[in-house]
Amino acid sequence: MNDLSQYLYFIEQSHLNQSAGRIEASKKDAIAAIKILNTLAKTLAKEDKCYNIVQQLSRYTLAYYDQIDKDGLSLSTKMEWLGSKSYMPLISFSSSLNSADSKFIAINEMYIDPDSNLEQVPDRLSVGFKNVTIQPFGSTSHDLTDLYQDLLANCSFVSSVLSIVDSQAKTSLKLQDLISPHGPSNKYKIVFNFNGARRVVCVDSRLPFPNVDRSLFLSSFSDHSLYWPAMVEKAFLKVMGEGYAFSGSNMAMDTYLLSGWIPEIIRIRNNMLPPQFETLWKLLQEGEVLLGVGTGKLSNELAKQLNLISHHDYTMVSMNSDGSIVLKNPWIERENINTRFITIDEFTHVKSLYVNWKNNFRMCSKVTFIHRGSSKYFFENPQYSITNKSDEIQDVWLLLERHLSGEDISIRLGVYKSENGDRVLIPNQFEFINASDRDTNNRLYLVKLKIEPRKSYTAVVTSSSGCTFTLSCLSNINTDIVKARFANPNSLPVQEDEWDITNSGGNWSFSSFINNPQYSIEITAESNLQLALFSNSPKTVVNFHLFHSEKGSINIPLRTFDKKKLLLHENYNEGYQIYHFRNLQPGYYKLVLSTFDVGVRDGYQLLANFSEVSSVKISKIWNHLGLFTEKRQIEWSNSNRFKLHFSVDNFKSKMTFHIQHRNGANEYESSSSYRPGIRASIFHARTQAPIQINENWSESLYGVFVDCFLEWPGEFILLVERFEQGPGRCTVEIGSSTKFSLTT
Amino acid sequence: MNTNLLYVPLRQSRPIDMGSELREVIRKDYFQTPSSFEPDLMRISNARNKITLLTNETISQKSEILLKEYYVYLLAVMKKFSDGCVEFGWYGTLTYGPSGPTKSRSLKVELWNIVFQLGSFYSQMALQESRFTDDGLKNACALFQQAAGCFEYICQLVKRETDQSSNSLAIPRDFYGDTVLCLKFLMLAQAQETIWQKALGNTTLKDTVIARLSMSTSDLYGQALEYGNRSDYIKLEWINHIGVKKFHFKAAAYYRMSIVSQDSFEYGEQVALLRVASSSCDSALKYKKYVTQLVVEDLRGLNQTIKDVLRGAEKDNDLVYIKPVPVEKDLKPIAAVSMVKATVPSDLETPVETRKSLFNDLLPYIVIQVAQAFRERQDKYIYERFVEPIQALNNMLVKFITERGLPASIDALQQSENLPDSIIQHSQEILAFGGTDIIEDSITEINKLSMECQQLIDHCNGRLTLDAKEEDMMRQRHGREHWNHQTTEVAARALIERIEKMIQYLDQARDGDSCVLTKYYEIKPYLEIYCGGYKPLSEFIPNSDYSKVDKNMSNIITDLRNAVNQVSVLEEQRKRFLSQVELKAREHNILPSVIEEFKSKQNEMYDENGNVNERSFEVVYDKHIKLFSKEMKFMESTKSTQISLENDIDTLNSRFISDYNTRSSDSQVKRKEALQLLEAVYSKYLEVISNLSEGSKFYNDFLVKGNGVLSECEDYLNQRRLESRELELTISKLLRKEVEEETRATSVGAPITKPGIWSPDQGIKFD
């Protein structure tokens, strides 16, 4: 290890430690790096060309050291360092010096890549790894355009390499700039764009040589000693994690990795090139895009007839006047260059058009985050908002990159035209800008937007498994990516509970509606309040109802469904209900959460956020009539009255009776069921003095409630009457603040 | 207090906790809860209590503040509550004892009572003024005029009420014109009398002027007397007092004029004037019974003076001047000069609200109901104007394409293997919608709804059956001769007919359901292929031989495919359009607009009974629904796009059919048939989905309307039961009477049960 490579080791470790919050360790590493530089500065003469490098590194290191304990690192930057420890982000020490520079490589030092993944090779192939010497380096454009794949199934990568080298004159992209050193070495460093940053990948100088007369790495049929592209390929295979047993990627992804040009995959539908193809072709000539195509599945017979390969990527070389297109095949079997170019005039079997756009945007902001995987509720997915702060429509591209994990993961980036960049609670809450896009197992996902002046948008990332992502926002104005928040700044704790056999009362057309879970809400200052209810099962049909309530009845469960006191009357939905109450007045409210059907068993989450600080309190209402409860069922048996004797042993008993008619065996009635008029009164059993007389008949679906306060202990009678004699039964639920007993 | 004049006594009110009454009204009929308005409720309770405690002759300036404060509160209450929301009771105090109480469920009548109290207040304040100072007299005069103004205002308010053709308000009888007008003129007369009195103190004033002031006072008392005589509420003391005053001031006027005649040496006229004055005194004296001593003494003094002067004047004329004495009718009438008018206190007509108006934010439930109704109307509008037509247009388009065998015919030709994009799209769409599961769930749901509809009909029939059973039982119990209640068949004819109609509709719907079911089972195996994904689809669609089509045909196919591709572009556009419409509808909640309209124009929104007129909100809906005019334009354009697209496809397809002469290979035919079958299945699938959605809508509508019928059946049953009980009671009274008559004839007496006490051991009484 030379001194500078040792310096780099310490400075990278320092960055890692700083990102992990180990400030002291970070400082210690930085000091170790500074010591190396000090030693070098002492030993080098000022005229030495390395002296200038030491100076640049010293400037960088001192500035870096000063900010170590300043906590200025964003979470995203920390994630960049911590997310991929094997592939360090590229450090720019100055405009002309970065951490991939050959000066940091100890060229003569023995180096064997410890990553055993690279030793994976295709089945039934015997392969030996041998050191190669890259001497001379060789990078004539002719040799590079003659690069081809042979045994290795990496058509997408080779097509990407070819598309870059073929357009080199127009794009100024230079493949050789990715690798250092440009000469013989035991170790090579290659810079790729992946996992949210430009990262440095190290490989040793060994390449695989199969025991057959074929090549397992990228070769040029015009210069058989052109090995460095194979080193770039090797770095790519290392990053992909499958070594030489590579199973494939796609050209747009690989081109992004190599060049950082923004990838777009256009599905070719209905056998026709997309309408924007002519424009793209023009841009290709101008060096603004790189283009390629991918075929779909083809039978061997059809593939032969069409001279195409099934599931294969090609670069686009030229267009003929008749509209036919010449494709360049990255694969050549046994150096038979006759199959290199193919002309096609129908696009039935072409499935994808790969476009990589040169990044002409002036601004880029990005955020790196972890997705915990398939979320139970949509709103739990990571969400970020962007706002067009200008007065003009702006082109903004959002690029989502899934960090490499080796898993097959399905992802999607949904963009919603939200209000103030709010968190999206349900998929149809706001206008879904890219609704026609689908989930993809590609690592990169591009959404091109035209964002309206002064409008905000929320991007929602969904993923089938847990993974790290980087979301980049490219634009011409300052457009920060901000974590999307709920509509209001203050949130109440999430209420998590369930509908079970006792409280799943169904919708308000059932007598059991009042058994549903209920909450009291107290508003102390005018406030906006957003409520969101989610059932665990997306199929459960749910709703909530908010009623005006009184201070005196705040902890008493609902006794009827009074439409007049109802603040909203929305339809039941599958899986959710949300509503944003604006300017809710101070007062007391009662919230009922219900499923459409009776007896549903499912869990729920209730979210509440509000605008005014400390203005909203929520508490659960316990659905019991009293501390002590009893229940009786009495058959009407064609009578119109019955008496229930009960005795109370204590003074000052608060009692509540809930009387309901039942026609059949069901524990609930529907609004259309027959209900006789019922009334109930209370008498002292011995004196028969009335304690509470109710003269009015009630036909309420939810039954009759009688509250009474018994000053003295004693035996009492509850007299229940119905308007006319008839069948059915009557349930009487009794709740009391003190112990009581039913004597009949 | 000066007893020479009268004050109008305060009316008495039954105490009432107005806040608590209104609290109950808010609880029952308003959107918010009463606790949100507790301060307002307390304020109005206090104000009402304070005005109830006012008593005659103890009033002060503060009483006016209290009355006016309550008056302003009442106006605020009238803006927000219906006129009949609270019952008030007031006693009249003009008669010997308190009359009434007159119970009235009207805020208006309450307001009139407060105006009356203010009139009474001013009359009492006038009497508190000094009769010996100019200022006292001036103030008293102004106060009497304000009192008169209050009674005048009551007359105006009552007239406004009676002029309304739809008026159903019971106006308390003591607020009818005669009584209140009597009070008004009494107050005006007393104001005029005060001016007259002030004039007396002015020694420079001529007798003519005083005579004319006096005559006017007499006239005003005269009018008061006339109305007083017509009223049942003005007591005799007052009638007599007014009568005495009327003739007293007439006599005084003529007496003053006699002095003028004497001064101008017209002795005959002097005698004639004095004779009129004397006879007026005689007339006044006829009213002296029950009149206060002070008034009678004044009269006697005047009478004595007039009589003495008359005696001397007659003697002088008979002996000395011998002038002819004209009869009364030949005398020049005394032109009365009225210096007074009824002054309605300005703050009654345009009250000044000093504090925050009461119940400012209180929203009558009707406002919320209107918003809810508008929301439902908007939902219907969106469904009928956008969702339904787009579905229909899409279905027509798919049918159009499928009938022409597209895109299967060109797919089979161009794409010899793999799945064509249209098939993939259909498969994705069917899967995204829930595949066959969702259809089967919908069918189950529709069956459930159909059963619920049947149950609803059964419930309706059940209510009528119950009535029929109860009728039969009563008829049996009381005999046909006594039980003359209509049979259920007759009484419930209209309901029976409606239920039969419901049964017919339900039968038709079930027929429709079974057609949809058949259609579904026909396509189900193919839908399962669609839902199976790539593998079953590619197994179902055989590969064909690849044959390259010639350039010309390739161009035709490209054009045709371009046109067919436009179909999916159009469908995608429509899908996005519908989701935007849905969001727009959700974002533009009509409730705030309705509330805003109510708050800004609430004065215009109440009808004469203080109820909110729901029709006055129509303008809000009208304005709101114009939000969708851009969308309406889209509907027109998408329709015309479809027409022109269909024409293009038709033309291109004809060219394709006529130019494509090459005989297809067997494998190509098979592939084409499979593709066309799947396209046809997709078209039918859309029909099934649309049919199921219509079915669900039908049953849901049926349930809403059916519940209305059920509620009518329930009302009918309740009404019939009440009638039965009434009839049963009549029959039992009749029988009891017969028995009593029989018993009276045979025995001395029978024990009588005391009614009205209800004990748990007795049966329920419904009398």
TrEMBL record, chain A:
The active site is at residues 155, 312, 329. One of its GO terms (molecular function) is calcium-dependent cysteine-type endopeptidase activity. One of its GO terms (biological process) is proteolysis. Signal peptide: none annotated. Keywords: Hydrolase, Protease, Thiol protease. The keyword Cell membrane does not apply. It comes from the Eukaryota. Residues 145-335 form the Calpain catalytic domain. Gene3D superfamilies: 2.60.120.380. PROSITE patterns: CALPAIN_CAT (PS50203). The keyword Manganese does not apply. Belongs to the peptidase C2 family. PalB/RIM13 subfamily. This is Cysteine protease RIM13. The lineage of its organism: Eukaryota, Fungi, Dikarya, Ascomycota, Saccharomycotina.
Automatic annotation (TrEMBL), chain B:
CDD domains: BRO1_ScRim20-like, V_Alix_like. GO terms for cellular component: endosome. Residues 4-397 form the BRO1 domain. It comes from the Eukaryota. SMART domains: BRO1. Pfam families: ALIX_LYPXL_bnd, BRO1. PANTHER family: PCD6 INTERACTING PROTEIN-RELATED, PROGRAMMED CELL DEATH 6-INTERACTING PROTEIN. Belongs to the palA/RIM20 family. This is pH-response regulator protein palA/RIM20.
